Give the backbone structure.
Amino acid sequence: MVSDSFTREENIGFWKNLILVTAFFVVTPLTLGISLYSLFSFKSNTAAREVFDTANLIVSPQSGIKVYASLPTVFPTVSEQISSSDARSEILRQYMENYGSPLALYSGLIVQTADKYSLDFRLITAIAQQESNICKIIPPGSYNCWGWGIHSNGSLGFKSFDEGIEEVSRGLRTDYLNKGYTTVNEIMGKYTPLSNGSWADGVNEFMSEME
């Protein structure tokens, strides 16, 4: 009887251990699989939520967040074509406005007069910059921005900026270029013969700023 009792208990213990081992090898992989599935699902949902949030930021920007849109490749224009005269006038106007010059209003006339006498459109503006900071330092009422006609008894005056632009441009053509003074350095030799070269350096530099 005792032997049978031990045998029965051993059988029960064997089957119990077998069931536990089987349950371990079945439940453990299943649990691991469920855990991995849950982890990947969580990451996917997070990524999807981030994409959705990003899209919302573009549609409805939040304070403190900058959203950059691509710039248009074609811009509206006032005129389909800009003549070379208009472009040069604009260059002069912007240059002189940067220095607060009253001559800025005459940029168109300067270009027209330069064309009339076949001059570089920048020349008289550069000379005016060298001589008077483009008309800001001149004798009152003289309209002479170019130091034109300076002599021992004073300097020449004009009735208006219009007259000054005309007379200086014409004088540069007839008294300088037509007589062989064709470079700024050569013009300096007659225009201001006592200069040590700084006059030509200044005029050349100012002309280069208007390119």
